[in-house]
Recover the amino acids of this structure.
């Protein structure tokens, strides 16, 4: 029996002053809802977003930020064509890939971190 019951949240690092770009990208482009950060953590900067499955995506400020080119977060969607259309409408380049046996795209967040979006049937 595993001691873990699931995944609660994932944190992506970003540079200081990332909040506006985080809101524009994760809410404005990807359609996630921003969550209020606890008052005790607001001083640290960053932003938190809700995923439809109840998990969370946190953007955290890193003092010596370096974009992640290999390690990444993989989000899932039901309609990859719709995601690609939204990305194109916002002039956000993405790269198609099916090497893992599922349709997916790779792209970068506003700070150059690698992101993956995987098509998952509901």
């Amino acid at each position: 029996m595993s001691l873990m019951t699931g995944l609660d949240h994932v944190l992506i690092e970003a540079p200081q002053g990332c909040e506006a770009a985080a809101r524009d990208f994760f809410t404005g482009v990807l359609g996630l809802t921003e969550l209020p950060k606890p008052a005790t953590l607001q001083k640290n900067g960053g932003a938190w977003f809700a995923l439809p499955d109840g998990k969370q995506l946190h953007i955290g400020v890193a003092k010596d930020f370096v974009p992640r080119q290999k390690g990444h977060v993989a989000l899932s969607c039901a309609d990859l064509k719709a995601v690609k259309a939204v990305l194109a409408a916002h002039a956000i380049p993405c790269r198609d890939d099916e090497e893992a046996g599922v349709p997916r795209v790779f792209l970068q967040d506003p700070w150059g971190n690698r992101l993956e979006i995987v098509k998952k049937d509901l």
About this structure: The first strand starts at residue 9 and ends at 14. The two ends are 27 Å apart (CA to CA).
